[in-house]
Every structure is written in C-alpha cells, then in structure tokens.
C-alpha cells in the first residue's frame, strides 16, 4: 500500500514543470524527508523547468532540493538589507555559494531573477539569515552532478536572461555590478535592473558610462532595461554613442533614470538617433529619459536610415524650441526611420 502511494507520488512529481513555493503552510521537514527517501538522490521534481522560490524570506534552506538538470528559470526572493554593509557582504557571500551550486545542479538555467523585499525574521541578523540560506551542500542531490564536473571547469554560467530588482540603500546599483562579477554572464542576452535606491553620494562621476561600465562589457546583450528613477546621470550624445557601440546587437533599450540638464550638462540631440541605429541596426524599441531638438536651422535634419528597425521611440522629456512644432518632429522621425510609429510628443 505505502509503496503504491510512494510510486504514485514520484510519478506525479515527475510531471511537474512549474511551481511557486511560498512560506504559507510549508513544513520545513517535508521536502528534506521526501528527498531522503529517493534512493539515487535525484530531485523530487526532476522535470521542473520554472521555480519561484518565495520561502527564502523566512530563512528556509531547502532550495537545493528543487534544483535539477532541467531547470530553465529560477526566481528567488530574499530579504532586503536596507543599505547595511554587513548585510550586503553576507548577500554577496550567499550569491557566491549559490552560483557554484547552480553551475553544478542546473547547467541549463537560462533565466535568473533575484528580488529583494520583505523583512528579516526578528530572530535573525542579516549575516545569520544569509548563512542559513546556503548551509546545505550539493551532495544532497549528488546524482544531478556530473562526476566530471567541477567549479573550475564550470566557471561561466550560460544564462541568457537576468533580472535583479528591489535593492534598497545607496549601494544598490554597485551591488548589481558585484553580482555580475560573481556570475560572469558572458552569454547574457537580456538584463533588467530595477532599483528604488538613491544614487550614492560617494560616487566620483555622474557619467552614465562610468557608472555602468561592468554592464557595457557584456557585448552580447540584445535587450536592456535599466529602471533606476532615483539615480542621476550625465547623459549626452557622447554617452549615448558609447552605449550603442558597446551593445551592437541591441533590439530593445529602455533607460529610465534622472538626468542632469543645464548649461554645463546637455542631453542627447535628436540627430544622434541616426548614429544609434547605424551602430545598432536591429534596434526596434528605444526608451530614454530625455532628448532635445537644437535651436538651429538644421535641427531636424536627421540622416535617413531606410533599413532601420526602429518603430518605437519613447522620450521622457523632449526639449523642443518654441519655434518648432511637435508635429514637425514626428514628421522628421518618420522620414528618417520608415518603421517608426509616430507618438504624441509634448
């Protein structure tokens, strides 16, 4: 009787492809106990492809029991550390451990999301909380690990999509760059970074390229979304062209942040779009915080790009001289980029 129940459990478990695990009603001993009964130590859900792990905010440590060779997408939500330097150090240490285990247990992982929100359990310090999240060894599911594999031979994670969001504290963005150095995403094609953190008062430069240099080294990126509304950057033609040169395969680029605009700081000129689409011929969707039309006779003389893929251009603030109508701007864009779909310009 019990063997039939067990076999049925394994049968149905083997057909689960996607699962979200939260803290409500989750017995901490169930998964380890069931996993220990599997003779070859294979995962309880061997066919699992998508996993949303929402139990980490309670300090649970049985994520490894769900990692398997078929996992393609992983979302992990952990507690925020509110700018605590000790909490950030512990968070990075946890990521180093998790990186090593993901390389061995889920080599086909292609999409990884790290979210930070929620509060620490009152009984745990940030350091203890993150230590609890990686105390399990990979041996608990050793059958998933290739006998010839090692961390040294699997240093690079072949992720295609990465999402990092919800950081708090002044060093939130800097923390993202340290994560990139841990995971070494050389094949990354899509990245989304969101943060409500303010920019650090200690930073030496406001230039966009100086602050995002680690990201510019990921040359294979095709989709980039940076949503950091409380960060302020110097964002001009030179900076925009540097971004385009770094990511020639871009299909969509969404930049959302605050910007400097004064006599000493300019924003990109509308005519620079021709250079952008020349450097990124596949760019179809482009969002940026600001752009300006120069107060000159040739202000709307944008070099035509008949083969351009650009069809969506969203500008947060368009600085247009009083003597130029917004309709003229739309017409100039349509003439330069045939695929462009005109939108209301204010």
UniProtKB/TrEMBL annotation:
Annotated InterPro entries:
LRR_dom_sf (IPR032675)
Q: Which Gene3D superfamilies match?
A: Ribonuclease Inhibitor
Q: Which domain of life is it from?
A: Eukaryota
What is the protein name given in its UniProt record? F-box domain-containing protein
Q: Which organism is it from?
A: Trametes pubescens (White-rot fungus)
